[in-house]
Write a structure and sequence with these properties.
By secondary structure, the protein is mainly β. Helices cover about 0% and strands about 50% of the residues. It has a 5-stranded mixed sheet, with no helix packed on it. Strands 1-2-3 form a 3-stranded antiparallel sheet, with no helix packed on it.
């Protein structure tokens, strides 16, 4: 682990801040803080992750790097999201075919992310 860190460059990551903008690492040189220029787009969770196939379920998408104007589709259908913050996008699920649904998100800067079977329509 750290005892084999001969160049004092590598270490054990301790934490990432709540917005994903800073990474805190412990190296043999001490605490290192890495400030990212931008937070990468990522999907964390969809809560709840299931609901009626007829639509109407209110869900909260949690992740990172969301921007004003982020586009979301669930099961191939575009959904209208409310930008709450860079980690939170609430929306209402549209009517879907029963079964597992893929979630796709795209930021205005062209960055995209997807998650298969993100939501189960019952």
């Amino acid at each position: 682990m750290l005892s084999t860190d001969v160049d004092a460059q590598h270490g054990s990551f301790l934490a990432i801040d709540e917005n994903g903008q800073r990474i805190f690492a412990l190296t043999t040189s001490g605490l290192t803080v890495v400030q990212l220029a931008s937070v990468p787009l990522g999907i964390g969770s969809l809560n709840p992750a299931n609901g009626s196939s007829s639509g109407g379920t209110s869900v909260v998408l949690r992740g990172s790097g969301f921007q004003v104007g982020t586009k979301v589709s669930l099961g191939g259908k575009n959904v209208s999201v409310t930008f709450k913050d860079m980690n939170t996008l609430p929306f209402t699920v549209p009517a879907l075919s029963p079964g597992s649904q893929q979630l796709l998100i795209a930021n205005p800067n062209g960055e995209t992310a997807g998650l298969d079977a993100a939501f189960i329509a019952n």
